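Good day; I would like, with your permission, to put a structural problem before you. The record follows directly beneath this note:
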Amino acid sequence: MVTLTGKNIFLRALEPEDLDFLYRLENDETVWEVSETQAPYSRYVLREYLKNSHKDIYEVKQLRLAISDYNEKLLGFIDLFDFNPKNKRAGVGIVVLEEGNRNRGVGTEALRLLINYSFARLGVHQLYANITEDNAASIQLFSNLGFERVGVKKDWHFTEGEFKNEILYQKINRS
């Protein structure tokens, strides 16, 4: 049975109550490099986003899920993006807020749940992740769960006056 429920965390749909957390995350400049954000988001824009977050992945080609512990504490988000049902692939992104949640297995458990869901429920053949070469934590996370390094995009991100390479990782469902 495929489930979005793990031992310590579960993945759930976004709720209107997530607005403050989403606002804080989307306006955290330390994660803008990953999301390619250039300017802050208003509460209004994020409220409208939450109103439409219930739409089907086949319609909007993306799915954002909240990562929550069993005390209902929101720990981060995990996304499928560029969902392509014809070619059976999707991109994966994850952010776990620091606040004592990192290095506790939250990201590993969330990514494992999303992989299983994607392969079993959505029929995805492959997942991919784009990770800057200096993001050791993400490289380790995705590598530990079977994503393979398949390519490098040279000078892909321009951040703080310098270019950074981006590494492409893929996990192909062989079953």
About this structure: The CA atoms of residues 19 and 47 lie 7 Å apart. Residues 106-120 form the longest helix (15 residues).
